[in-house]
Design a protein that fits this description.
The complex is a heterodimer.
Chain A: E1 2-7, H1 14-24, E2 27-32, E3 44-47, H2 67-77, E4 81-85, H3 87-95, E5 101-103, E6 111-119, E7 135-142, E8 146-148, H4 151-159, E9 165-167, E10 178-182, E11 188-191, H5 209-217
Parallel strand pairs in A: 1-2, 1-3, 3-4, 4-11
Antiparallel strand pairs in A: 5-8, 6-7, 6-9, 9-10, 10-11
Chain B: E1 2-9, H1 16-27, E2 40-45, H2 52-63, E3 69-75
Antiparallel strand pairs in B: 1-2, 1-3
Classes of the chains: A alpha/beta, B alpha+beta.
Chain lengths: 222, 76
């Protein structure tokens, strides 16, 4: 699998993401936000966490309008895979590739800890390494992870099983404990918790490995 | 020309920052503050012939996230 990791000014999880993908077996290319094109034949684009453009205006808003994001949108529209973590999730909602919006945490606090998530569906490339009902631990580190969407959108997300991860204990005010959402074609995933920070025993946990292995498994010859 | 764009959370969207400001006003002894909503003001320096439609497009595409925010343009 060929993967591109987008780097914005203020990204700070880009290298963690690259290491997680490489460890799982991907051929990883770092791509600067000013580039207008992705490397050829990229299967997955990862939009990493951090504070792109200093979170100016709204988290992810400036990044979503950078040159590379036009290419990321085109990649997704062609049916390509996209993974957005934390700030990357915020960027994906701002591009419109994922519905809803991430608001300031309801208690106004920056939360930085490892949290339990419930895997709700194994039916996506990202979650096929898990079983529905699994409880996994990923770190979170965010100030704006309070997911909100209109009632029609929520109904569609629930009805189509597009909420692969929920917080076991709601920590930021997210509606329906939503920690991550999938696009309609299930190939774009955004989530606030960091699977790439749970792939090595040195991280204190390896529950994120199955996400990257599952993703890589999607591209193995049958 | 100048335009001022006011961006506010839509009615019905919980504004935790506004709520924190309301609490702080209460603890300073200002009674009777029943609600606080916090928003943004963005001032634009524009060439004179910029149309209202163009400014609205700027708001829709970037300045506001219309999922949760409303905006109002004031041409100065």
């Amino acid at each position: 699998m060929r993967a591109a990791v987008i780097v914005f000014p203020g990204s700070n999880c880009d290298r963690d993401m690259a290491v997680a993908l490489k460890t799982a077996g991907a051929d990883v290319h770092m791509v600067w936000h000013k580039d207008a094109d992705l490397p050829d034949r990229v299967d997955l684009v990862a939009v990493p966490g951090g504070f792109s453009f200093g979170d100016y205006l709204r988290c992810g808003a400036i990044a979503a309008n950078s040159p590379i994001c036009k290419a990321v949108i085109a990649h997704a529209e062609r049916g390509g895979y996209v993974l957005g973590v934390c700030n990357g999730f915020q960027v994906l909602t701002e591009t419109g590739l994922l519905p809803g919006v991430l608001m300031r945490n309801a208690n106004l606090k920056f939360v930085c800890k490892t949290v339990d998530l419930k895997v709700e569906t194994s039916e996506s490339a990202f979650t096929q390494g898990y079983d529905a009902g699994d409880i996994v631990s990923y770190p979170v580190a965010h100030h704006d992870g309070n997911y909100t969407a209109g009632p029609e959108t929520l109904k569609a997300l629930e009805g189509q099983a597009r909420i692969p991860f929920r917080y076991v204990r709601n920590l930021n005010g997210s509606v329906a404990d939503i920690a991550g959402v999938l696009s309609e074609n299930r190939r774009v995933l955004g989530l606030m918790p960091h699977p790439e920070r749970a792939v090595d025993v040195g991280h204190g946990g390896t529950d994120g490995q199955a996400l990257f292995r599952g993703l890589l498994g999607e591209f193995l010859p049958a | 020309m100048k335009a001022r764009v006011h961006v506010m959370l839509k009615n019905g969207v919980l504004d935790p920052q506004g709520e924190a400001v309301r609490h702080a006003l209460g603890s300073l002894g200002f009674d009777g503050v029943e609600g606080v909503r916090q928003g943004k003001v963005i001032e634009l320096d524009l060439v004179d012939e910029t149309s209202a439609a163009t400014i609205n497009e700027m708001c829709e595409k970037l300045l506001a996230n219309t999922v949760i925010e409303s905006y109002r343009v004031e041409v100065l």
